[in-house]
Amino acid sequence: MTVALAVGQPAIASGAETAAGGRLLGVSPVIVRLRAEIATLGRAGFRAVLVQGESGVGKEIVAEALRAASARRRAPYEVFDCPAVPEDHLESELFGTARGAFPGAVDKPGALERAHGGTVFFDEIAAMRRDHQAKVLRTIEGKAFRRVGGTTGIVADVAVIAAAHEDLAVLAARNAFRHDLFYRLVHDGILTVPPLRERREDVAVLARDFGARTATRVDACALDALAEHDWPGNVRQLLTVLRVARRLGDGVVSGEAVEIALRRFPHPGRPPAPSRPPAGEAGPAPAPDFHAVTVRAQRRALLSAFEVAGGNKTAAGVLLGFHRSPGGGGADDGPLTEARRNLALRKFRYWSARLGVAPLLARAAAPLPAGAARAPERGGDEIVED
After folding, report:
1. Distance CA 124, CA 82 (A)
2. What's the pLDDT tens digit per position in 368-379?
3. CB neighbours (10 Å) of residue 215?
4. 59, 190, 250, 328: least CB-packed within 10 angstroms?
5. Which residue, of 141, 168, 194, is where some domain finishes?
6. Which burial class, exposed, middle or buried, applies to 374 when counting CB atoms under 10 A from its CB (0-12, 13-18, 19+)?
7. Per-residue pLDDT reduced to its tens digit, 130-165
8. Do both 172 and 248 map to the same domain?
9. Are residue 49 and residue 186 in the same domain, yes or no?
10. CA distance 2 to 231
């Protein structure tokens, strides 16, 4: 037997309007454009949307903004943190349990039932096992599911917003994520949240908002120091540094406090910054930053390939070997099919965004002045589906 749930009284999930107020703050063109995309999707309605971006950029804020822009804004909202749920509990948390399913089990609705008529946000959906991904796909398609230990099929009306810090297209190409679920998630749209280093003009906006929310003065020297940082941890790292600097400065965020906070809390995976020698004393020459050297080399390789390929991202990706299958050992493992060209383009775009050179490539590919000509290229940046 299958039952369709009735939509009850709307319920707003507690904590949805959080410290950032569900607001996507910023004045940069990329954030203005992202807010416009969210408004358009919300008005049109959606069944499934994918939100992608590096860790710490604020994907959950984007999800909350999308829900708030939709007709489901006052309906139930469930946040399902995929990596935080133990694998042996995931089905019961997602689909619910029936009395007697296991010792101590009671009738309990899962996240999908609780969100009926509203929205479910799957945070870091790539962490979900493939068999669980298949069941999520069935739910998005409006098919019935059963509680753990239950016999009655349940159909829940939910909109799905999924987030990932990895490129799901690349994972799907590697069979590390289900192709069918990926294509269903992107059916209504992909929202890409840019890293903070690509929208530096928003750092001051976020810092001033932090000051307004915490009754803290953020001085001009602090804003200058914050603007010079690359923020590999994105907005999450920025807010952490501001909180620490506020404690160090007795309620005032100064430039000196920001510098101290940045040295105390380096980006994970990098060594702490060495302490400075006292004034007048010469310290040892600093060791080269291996990560920075590697990133610079990767950026040069991307830009060089883009130039050699005449601005054709697909060709640049092929030059860099992005078309090769994982585990190919660096060999040219077959003909250059459309699927491999697509893989080269997707990986080139991914690494361009990750290494912060996408804006440089966009400027390089800007239209030529009137009267100038550019040689036509076959293939361009077009993705051809298999």
Report:
1. 6
2. 455 444 444 333
3. 8
4. 250
5. 194
6. exposed
7. 888 998 898 888 888 888 888 888 888 999 999 999
8. no
9. yes
10. 50
